[in-house]
Amino acid sequence: MPLYPLPAFGSVFVCRGVQLPRPSSRSMITDVRRRVRLWRRAIVPLRFLSSILFVFVFVFCPVAIWLRGLSPMWPVLLVELVVIVAVTALEFRYLHHRLLPTRIEERRSKLVVMALSPLAAMRATDALTQRLLDDLHPVPVALALCDRDTAAVIVRRWLADSGIAEEVRWGERSVEGLSRDAQTADLLLRQGGLSLGAVLAPPPPENDGCRSYCPRCGAQYTLIRGTCGTCGGVALRSLGPGIQGNSRDFRGGV
Length: 254
Description:
Layout: H1 28-42, H2 44-68, H3 70-99, H4 104-116, H5 118-122, H6 124-129, H7 138-145, H8 148-162, H9 164-170, H10 180-191, H11 196-200, E1 212-213, E2 220-221, E3 227-228, E4 234-235, E5 237-238
Antiparallel strand pairs: 1-2, 1-5, 3-4
C-alpha cells in the first residue's frame, strides 16, 4: 500500500479479521474511530521523534555537508544520528510495551531492525499502528477511516470476493430475503452512509466507448462480454441500470 513520505502524516493499518462482525446497538464505525483517535494521541511523542530523524537525515545532514564538507562533519553527524535513532527506539520500546505488552518477540525484532536502519526508525509509528486494527474486519475499518468513494471501492471488492454481490444480484430484492452476512453488510454500510445498492450499482461510463465493467474493481471495458484480467477472470457486466427494486433497503447513494 502507498505510504506518506513524511512520518508525521498518515498511518498504516492491517486488518486480518475474517468474519464479518454483527452490528450491535453501538456503532462499530464509531468504536473504530475512537480506538484510532486514542491510539494516535498515545504515539504523538514517537511521531515527533520520527519526524526529527527524517529532517536530520534528509535536510540537516546534506546542508551541513554542503556547507562544511564531509571530512570534518561525518563523525559529528554519525554520533548525532546514533543518538536520535537510540532515543526513537527507546520511545518505540516504551510504547510497544505499553500498548502491546504480550508481543515480546515482535518488539525485539523491530528494535533490531531500527538499530540497523534509520529508515525503519523513521517508520516506527507504522510498526505500532499497523497492529491496532489487525483483529477487525476491513469493511467497518474502511467505512470508519476512508472517504466514501474509497470505502465503496474496498467494500465492493469484499462483496465480490465473499459472494454477497452475486447474491444481491440474483436473490431477493428486499434485505429480509438475503443471507445473514448480506443483511449485516447492509447494516454496516448504512452506519457509514452507504448502501448495498449504491456500492454495487454500475459506475457511470467513462466515455461513449465503454460497454462493460468489472463488478469487483470497477474497471471499464469496450467489450460487451469478457472477463477482467486484473481480477483473475471475473466476468464483466453491462454498463446498464443498477440494482433496483421497490424495497427501501436498496435505495440511497453515496
